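Troubleshooting log. The previous structure file for this entry was overwritten by mistake, so regenerating from the original sequence record. Sequence copied from the archived sheet and checked twice against the printout by T.R.
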Amino acid sequence: MGAWDDEPGVVQLPDGRNVRGTGIKRPRGRLGQPEFAVYLLGRDPGVLAWPSRWVRWGDFCLPRDPADAIDALREVHERAAAERVEIACRGGIGRTGTALAVLATLSGVPPTQAVDWVRKHYHPRAVETRRQRAWVASDPAGATRPGSSTG
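Regenerated output below.
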């Protein structure tokens, strides 16, 4: 497989990697399947159709375990170089947008500009809460710290 076709929700990060953002309540229909997915939900989605990872993350909140969330997002970023990867929450806007903003920082976008970047390239209401916006701006993945690696 490898690359996403021109499908809804696919975002090309500044480093050229593609990640599909979506919501699990959206019908999949004829959309292609990911080779790996991360689900940002309060409860385990129980997806068994493809390899996936669940990050415990309640609606309108921050991840319960931020280190686990960052580890999952680093895995998404790494896999996106060669695989079809997907990030999804329930509606596909707040938590998914927050995760995509963190991925943007791993791809070179300054953390203080990542929310604007993801709103321009993914969804105009992405990263819904003040706490989510502050978390992205705090550079939780350490993308701009000395010695950090973006890929």
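The mean pLDDT is 91. Archived copy saved in two places this time.
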